[in-house]
Amino acid sequence: MSEQAQCWKCGAPVQDLLLVPGRRVARLAECPQCHGDLHVCRACTFYDARVARQCRETVAEEVQDKVRANFCDYFQYREDAFQAGGSSEAEAARKALEDLFRR
Q1: Using the 8-state DSSP alphabet, how is residue 8 labeled?
Q2: Global confidence as pTM
Q3: Which string of DSSP letters, residue by residue, matches 33-101?
Q4: Predicted confidence pLDDT, tens digits, the chain (103 residues)
Q5: Which member of 11, 14, 17, 66 has the greatest number of CB atoms within 10 A?
Q6: CA nearest to 29, candidates 38, 21, 20
Q7: Which residue, 37, 36, 11, is CA-closest to 26?
């Protein structure tokens, strides 16, 4: 495990919140800086937007909201989940809709 795990949402250090072994984090753990949930699909090692259900764990139950805390027992915190730069998916989708309906 690296020394500097980061929040998937803002990039703030969250190493102190990770429970070893297995890169676990409490279900209701929050980032100390942005207060975003940490036990979310987007921050899991099994998260993959390119596969069905966006999860590579084949026996895990599907989670609809990938950015809110969930009860998945297979969750393992992915320390490289933070993607610096660019806009969030929601912002990109909002801009695409605005561009679509703009005249």
Answers
A1: T
A2: 0.75
A3: TT--BSSSGGGBTTB-TTSGGGBS-TTSPP-S-TTS----TT--B-TT----SS--HHHHHHHHHHHHH
A4: 445 889 999 999 988 887 766 678 888 999 999 999 999 999 999 999 999 899 999 999 999 999 999 999 999 999 888 887 655 666 777 777 888 887 5
A5: 14
A6: 38
A7: 37
